[in-house]
Amino acid sequence: MMAGNIALTKNITITAVVDAPDVSLAEDEEAGELLLHFYRALGWNRDDCLDPCKIRTTQEVYNSLLNRMHERCPDMVSVGMFMVSKGPGVDNDIPPGKVRLLEGWTTPDQQEALLA
Q1: Distance CA 47, CA 106 (A)
Q2: Helix or strand holding residue 17 (H, E)
Q3: CA distance 33 to 74
Q4: Is residue 30 part of a domain?
Q5: How many domains does the chain have?
Q6: What is the pTM of this model?
Q7: Residue 59 is part of which domain span?
Q8: pLDDT tens digits for 44-78?
């Protein structure tokens, strides 16, 4: 499955380019948990809001995540739709094995900010 390739506009700031984390699922976890592991390995704390549109990677990393999820859930349409809505985006100009984090990929939870 090919992810959409969206060009960066000039006003988007790259926060970091990091190695793509190697994540896996435990025996009792569902396919979607793989993306949670991926995002946590990138630095998401599960409390902040996460914008997967601001996480970009290579087609190879994207396909690896997709294939690992597909191993757990044989319905490729469901896995593909999940990846399209919750997975990282793909850019062809990212070095192999890397993930590009764009400004705003995580933002503090609004409720927590109001309580502080």
Answers
A1: 10
A2: strand 14-19
A3: 15
A4: no
A5: 1
A6: 0.83
A7: 49-116
A8: 999 999 999 999 999 999 999 999 999 999 999 99
